[in-house]
Amino acid sequence: MSEREPSQDDAVWQDLVARLESAEAAPDPQDKDTPGQDKPRPADAGNPPSRGLPGANFAAESPPEDALPVAGPRDYYAAEPEDDEFVPPEPAPLGTGEPLLVLAWCGAVGGPIALLLMAMFWRSAPFAAVVGLIVMIIAAGAYLVSRLPGERDSGDDGAQV
């Protein structure tokens, strides 16, 4: 790859900057507030000009400028169904769970967290504490698995709402 001369790069750069500055100062051709251009009206938007005569538009009388715009297809909103009939049941209080089940969940979830915290902050933890936590995790998991239902109902596919 050949190297360019720095003077040529500077000239190209200055030309680019000058073109960008002149583009920012020029008015936008799509700007609606430019003098000499008519603002599009909502009634004319759906009626394209005739193909036979250039510039001819055979639309019905256009509404005055201060009239409300006509509702279009994107202004449609589907009516939301009213679900006033459904009232969810009251949730059970937190303390009404089966104590052994709650203890098993605390052991299954809290045991790995405790092992992680011990590995990070208490490196000299006694071996018996680590083994005790591992046994607690295994026992809690075994109890939770044993509580699972053994058989599925014959007419039930398992889906519940």
Structure notes:
With 161 residues, this protein is mostly helical. It has a domain at 97-146. The protein is 42% helix and 0% strand. It has 4 helices and no strands. It has helices spanning 6-25, 42-45, 99-121, 127-146. Helix 3 runs antiparallel to helix 4. It is flat. The two termini are 67 Å apart. The mean pLDDT is 77.
Features of the shown structure:
single chain; mainly alpha
Secondary structure: elements and pairs:
Elements: H1 6-25, H2 42-45, H3 99-121, H4 127-146
Helix pairs in contact: 3-4
DSSP helix fraction: 40-55%
Uncertain spans, ≥5 residues at pLDDT below 50?
none
How many H/I helical runs?
4
Instruction: Output the structural class.
Output: mainly alpha
What is the oligomer described by this structure? single chain
Biggest sheet details: none
Give the overall form.
Answer: flat
Termini separation comes to 67 Å
Write a short abstract of this structure:
With 161 residues, the chain is mostly helical. The chain has helices spanning 6-25, 42-45, 99-121, 127-146. The two termini are 67 Å apart.
